[in-house]
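Entry 14. Structure prediction run on the chain below.
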Amino acid sequence: MSEAIGVLKDIVWGMAIFIGGLVGLLAVVVIYLDLTRLPDPDIQLGRVDRDTTFYIGKSESDPGSGVTISLLATGLLDTSGASVLIEYTRPPATATDCKLPTGPVDQIYGSDFYDNRAKVTYRHGAVQHGHLRLRFVFAYPPKEWGKHPMK
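Output returned:
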């Protein structure tokens, strides 16, 4: 009888070690995925008087389907000629070139986009002063953005 209890204790101890290891492994995976998750693309340009290039990727928290990219540009620009160029990275190709207005900017742009990574270039044209915020989603524009130019 004492041998049976000893074997049972060994089995319970082994199961506890196995479950503890499984929980530890799961914690490491969750932490890794959180640290490597791309942030939601929301860019406040520090300077609007120079060209700026950056890359954005689809966030894991973004529910988009990956066949559309939408841009909400808001801010104020002192003159015309500015635009936001969105390009594929592999192979390099232009997806859309969004012309920004002079004065107050509150515009939604969109394009078909069949990749999870984009090269974005803000081209200042003749802009010298102002501020600009660029928000991206790899989907149709969310309802909170307002009007829907692509639907």
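The longest strand covers residues 68-77.
Filed with the rest of this week's runs.
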